[in-house]
Design the sequence.
């Protein structure tokens, strides 16, 4: 009787355990049953290697080496990121990393400080532009041909840790020693922002990260306060980044309910449609956007939204053609995979992803070279447009999908002044070295200038700058060939001035000099002066026939942008 009572007391627990075991076994069997033949084969091969191979093999390392090769058989933008590289890869999009706050260049096997970030760790302890770093943590680094990537790893580290630097300074007889406490260093997306004339502001955006929209909006506001009524947004060379940053930027220029971007994936959860909320502060400003063959992904989202809404004049050359969206997923060992989850579509309904064949990434990467070979960089008639993918903008202008954003105004690649002499000195890095040497020798005098105009007034005349550089090039193994030098003289002198400005005032000021001879920038200024960048953008031709835009069906039919949302990588 007593044993029966004990059994009754334990019966509920026994039943619960049996049920749990049954559920677990069922899930395991079900999971095993769902494995494809290929998955079972892969697992079996790993077990054979682990148990029977003639030598001990680290299976985890084998999988680590196999993972990238596995993903190469998918689209060109699905990638595996090892745990050792993830932090560095993400820092470019995060907007900051932990380091000492300098930019440097290797000159004659010596780490030379180009710029000290104001307020950063190095600035706080007194490092200066022009300093040579000869030791790091008492280890000699000067004269050892250490790659720049290795130097970066030595200088970067966890926030709050210290690094000991031995410094050679021009006006100091003895080596100086600085203990620098690493801190958060901003990674700026906006490389330049200035008034290019009395009414037009210029903004150079290098990537789309988590801080890009805030940087961009701050620049817009500051330029507006300086008198800007129109803007040139330079996206040339911008390979993309976080899609939400591009959406927020587009929102500043569009009226309420204007479509910005659509996405459509295999799963309905990846379908979305984003519209402007009408709270943008610059919906009336004239706008030009500069693109080239290296403007990709998020750059194309922004440019496509502006073009399809007839909101901005797109100037330059056909963009890269990347219409795939990746989502980054962390794996158990702190590595990550960026897998393509959807395609994005511009407001007119076009997908601008260029053609690719799975597993043929080299062919995909060489597509830019193919454009060059067929003359597309120099003649718009050489561009292959897919006439079967014709759409119309809000105002009826024709646009095409299937391979990048085609500019409204084509500007060919400028080769004026490019001679064999220019190529030789450029490939040898002589302009950078000469400009830095000149800046270093005259730093005390030049550093008194606080803006580009006053600094340029302190430089010698163009002929003197050119002669000094030619003599420097001769001393470094490039003979003077004056026929070609005279052809290239204008761009050589302008570039040298820009580099000196960069060395003295910082990298953000370089564009104020280079843009004076940049044909794409000059074309944008000309078009804006004519009023051709005022919204709505009008076509030269009057297209009577309109093709209805095929907007992808979405589950989120009215997603008005009103917050940053989650990060989606689109680079």
Sequence:
């Amino acid at each position: 009787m007593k044993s029966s009572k004990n059994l009754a007391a334990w019966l509920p627990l026994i039943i619960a355990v049996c049920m749990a075991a049954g559920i677990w076994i069922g899930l395991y069997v079900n999971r095993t049953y769902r494995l494809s033949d290929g998955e079972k084969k892969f697992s079996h091969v790993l077990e054979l290697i682990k148990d029977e191979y003639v030598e001990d093999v680290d299976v985890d390392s084998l999988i680590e080496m196999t993972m990238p090769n596995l993903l190469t058989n998918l689209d060109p933008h699905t990638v595996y990121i090892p745990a050792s590289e993830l932090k560095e890869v993400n820092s470019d999009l995060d907007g900051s990393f932990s380091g000492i706050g300098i930019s440097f260049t290797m000159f004659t096997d010596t780490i030379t400080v180009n710029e000290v970030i104001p307020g950063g760790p190095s600035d706080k302890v007194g490092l200066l532009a022009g300093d040579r770093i000869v030791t790091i943590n008492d280890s000699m680094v000067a004269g050892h041909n250490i790659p720049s990537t290795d130097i970066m790893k030595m200088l970067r580290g966890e926030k709050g840790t210290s690094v000991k630097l031995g410094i050679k300074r021009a006006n100091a007889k003895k080596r100086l020693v600085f203990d620098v406490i690493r801190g958060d260093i901003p990674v700026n997306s906006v490389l330049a922002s200035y008034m290019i004339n009395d009414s037009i502001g210029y903004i150079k955006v290098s990537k789309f990260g988590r801080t890009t929209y805030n940087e961009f909006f701050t620049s817009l506001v500051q330029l507006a306060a300086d008198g800007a009524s129109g803007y040139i947004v330079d996206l040339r060379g911008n390979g993309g980044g976080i899609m939400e940053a591009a959406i927020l930027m587009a929102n500043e220029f569009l009226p309420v309910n204007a479509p910005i971007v659509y996405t459509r994936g295999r799963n309905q959860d990846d379908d979305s449609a984003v519209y402007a909320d009408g709270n943008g502060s610059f919906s009336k400003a004239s706008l030009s956007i500069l693109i080239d063959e290296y403007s990709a992904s998020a750059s194309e989202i922004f440019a496509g939204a502006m073009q399809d809404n007839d909101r901005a004049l797109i100037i330059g050359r056909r963009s890269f053609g990347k219409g795939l969206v990746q989502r980054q997923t962390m794996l158990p060992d702190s590595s990550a995979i960026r897998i393509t989850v959807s395609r994005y579509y511009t407001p007119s309904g076009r997908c601008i992803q260029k053609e690719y064949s799975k597993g043929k990434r080299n062919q995909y990467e060489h597509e830019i070279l193919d454009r060059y070979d067929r003359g597309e960089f120099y003649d718009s008639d050489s561009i292959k447009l897919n006439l079967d993918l014709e759409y119309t903008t809000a105002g009826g202008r024709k646009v095409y999908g299937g391979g990048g954003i085609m500019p409204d105004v084509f500007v060919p690649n400028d080769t004026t002044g490019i001679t064999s002499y220019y190529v030789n000195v450029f490939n040898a890095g002589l302009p950078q070295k000469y400009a830095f040497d000149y800046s270093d020798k005259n730093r005390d005098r030049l550093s008194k200038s606080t803006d580009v105009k006053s600094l340029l007034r302190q430089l010698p005349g163009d002929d003197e700058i050119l002669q000094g550089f030619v003599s420097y090039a001769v001393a470094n193994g490039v003979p003077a060939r004056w026929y070609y030098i005279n052809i290239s003289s204008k761009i050589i002198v302008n570039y040298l001035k820009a580099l000196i400005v960069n060395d003295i005032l910082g990298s953000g000021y370089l564009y104020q000099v280079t843009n004076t001879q940049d044909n794409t920038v000059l074309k944008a200024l000309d078009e804006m002066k004519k009023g051709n960048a005022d919204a709505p953008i009008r076509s030269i031709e009057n297209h009577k026939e309109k093709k209805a835009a095929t907007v992808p069906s979405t589950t989120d039919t009215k997603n008005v942008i009103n917050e940053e949302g989650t990060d989606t990588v689109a680079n």
Q: What stands out?
A: The CA atoms of residues 260 and 305 lie 5 Å apart. The first helix runs from residue 2 to 34.
